[in-house]
Amino acid sequence: MSDLETLVGERLVFGLSGPKLTDADIRLFRDTRAGGLILYRRNFETPEQHARLLQQLESALGRRLLVTTDHEGGRIVMLGRATTIFPDSLALGTAGDESFAFHQGVFEARELRRLGVDVNFAPVLDVLTERYSPNIGIRSYGKDPAVVTRNGIARIKGMQKGGLSACAKHFPGKGHSPLDAHLRLPTIDSTWAEMRATHLPPFLAAVEEGVDCLMTSHPIYPNLDSTRVPATFSRRIVHEYLREEVGFSGVIVSDDLEMGAIGETCPIGEAVVKTSAAGHDLLLVCHTEPAQRAAARALLDAYRAGTLPPKELEASVERVRRLRERRATRFEGGAPAAEPDAGPLARAIATRSVTVVAPGRPDLRRALNGRVGVVFPRFSDLAPRITIEPEIASETAYIADAFGRAGVAPTTSLVGIEPTDAEIATAAALAEASDAMVLFLFDAHLYASNKRLLTELQARARALAVVLMRDPYDAALLSPGVLGITAYGFRKCQLDAVIGRLLHS
Q1: Which residues pair with 326 in a beta bridge?
Q2: pLDDT tens across 135-148, in order?
Q3: Per-residue confidence (pLDDT) for residue 471, from 0 to 100
Q4: Structural domain of residue 144, as residue ranges?
Q5: Catalytic: which of 31, 180, 182, 301?
Q6: Which of 208, 135, 122, 105 is CA-nearest to residue 169?
């Protein structure tokens, strides 16, 4: 195998198809010389199985990989056992103490290093604005660039102190993206002046702090690069600005090149060549073997044909190798386990983040001493797709326990993540039979059925509290007299904190 093939492979980060290593997986990594692995929920069953997967792959290849994952906390958690599930970043930003972010970074570094992870694609440094942001929302620390910067930098310091490389994302900032880049190609019209005022400061601070990696974003920024290509393909944004003007010397990582935003633009082979030409070091092709092989082949062909410069290839590979060589061993710190002080920290963040977004009626507390009805989403339906804590997946038992601690014995009606007409009717009937209702609402601004559910309960409940379980945008849909409350997420620590405030305030 030629040196060129080895150099090209060092820059490729691929995902595996499942939790067990297959001959096809080994062939893929052997044939392409891919140097990086990204871990998803589909690869993780238990810490023991996970360790075997990594050991078997590296043993079969006879070389060390750069092992990465998306472990943002909150709703983005890939390795859901032997780790602490922290609240979403918007909860942490609301809690108002960046020492929480630092300690979270230290704890997650220790937990992920025990699981063999080298690089965590976190934190999100996107800044929210008044413009609705699908997909970022509670993943951001907030609307204030100073708050995002303080918390993001504290977490980066904690992670890297704990021996884990951080990767801040999504440069140059997409907290105001009008579309979800997983699905469609967004356009962001901000000028350089607007980006420097609001969206770039957290990233520039991360560079100053010595963050190991930065991940770019897929939207088109026509006022930053007049060629109107996605930032992923923009040499102006990636190489000229980030590498040369800002002086970032770490590893620049693409977001997943199999996302819909890129698929809309060009085939994967062309995409990986354009992403390399823009100035990225690591190229992520996360999901399917045909795309992964096509990406490796196209990149190799481009260097063989002289389309891409070999000097930049060598510089990229040197940066990637330095990153990988910082981790002397695969698993550090003993057997996989959650840090003992991490759970109390997660609960403290959640408690401090509870926010009343609509004041409600003054007699709600008295009504909660009577007949209480609860409408709660069937989170177990989501468990095949995202990490759901076992306690939350046992929905009725969770509600009985959480309310029971305050001496309240509610009647619980479960609804789908997108409720059916029959489920809405059952919930409405419960509202009419109850003195007070508590609705745990899952994104009524996105799902018409959840909006109908909210409308029905607002019309029928004598007294109503609505817990906003994801992005806080549903606050705009609440009627006068309805209490709106949130902890900016649906993790157990967050729901416990909201219920505690609801029943004890």
Answers
A1: none
A2: 899 999 999 999 99
A3: 84
A4: 3-324
A5: 182
A6: 122
Closest CA to 5 of 32, 35, 28, 30: 32
Identify whether the C-beta of residue 38 lies closer than 8 Å to the C-beta of residue 295. no
Q: Is the pLDDT of residue 90 over 90?
A: yes
Averaged pLDDT score across all residues of the chain: 94
**How much is the pLDDT for 481?**
94
Q: What is the DSSP letter of 303?
A: H
> Residue 502 corresponds to which tokens in the numbers above?
């609801």
Burial environment of residue 448 by CB neighbours within 10 A (0 to 12, 13 to 18, 19 or more): exposed
pLDDT at position 181: 59
Q: Let me know if 97 is a catalytic residue.
A: no
> For 144-234, where are the alpha helices, taking DSSP H only?
145-161, 192-194, 201-209
From 255, 256, 281, 496, the catalytic residue: 255
Domains: count for the chain: 2
Angle (CA) 28-322-38 rounded to 5° is 35
Three-state SS at 87: coil
Neighbours of 451 (CB within 10 A): 16
Asked whether residue 441 is assigned to any structural domain, the reply reads: yes
**β-strand partners of 252:** 214
How high is the pLDDT of residue 183? 63
The encoded tokens of residue 226 equal 């007049």
The CA–CA distances, whole Å, from 478 to 453, 466, 493 equal 12, 8, 24
Q: Which two tokens stand for residue 313?
A: 């290839």
- Give the count of beta carbons closer than 10 Å to the beta carbon of residue 249: 10
Name, in order, each residue with C-beta under 8 angstroms of 195's C-beta and a sequence gap of 6 or more. Answer: 172, 173, 221, 224
Q: In this structure, are 198 and 300 located in the same domain?
A: yes
With H, G, I as helix, E, B as strand and everything else as coil, classify residue 119: strand
Residue 1 has pLDDT above 50, yes or no: no
384 plus 452 within the same structural domain: yes
Same-domain check for residues 188 and 57? yes
Would residue 301 show up in a list of annotated catalytic residues for this protein? no
Cut 0.85: pTM above it? yes
Q: Mean pLDDT across the stretch 364-376?
A: 90
Q: Is residue 442 classed as helix, strand or coil in its secondary structure?
A: coil
267 and 285 Cβ atoms separated by less than 8 Å:
no
pLDDT score at 363: 82
C-alpha 467/C-alpha 475 separation (Å) is 10
Going from the C-alpha of 131 to that of each of 92, 168, 174, 209, the distances in angstroms are 21, 22, 11, 29
- In this structure, what DSSP letter does residue 475 have? G
Distant-in-sequence, close-in-space partners of 236: CB < 8 Å, separation ≥ 6: 224, 225, 227
Same domain, 269 and 386: no
420 and 485 co-located in one domain = yes
pLDDT tens for residues 379-388?
Answer: 999 988 899 9
CATH number of the domain to which 293 belongs: 3.20.20.300
Return d(Cα 377, Cα 398) in angstroms, integer.
12
Whether residue 493 contacts residue 104, with contact meaning beta carbons closer than 8 Å, is answered with no
Q: Which of 124, 131, 128 lies closest to 199 in space, CA to CA? A: 128
pLDDT score, position 364: 83
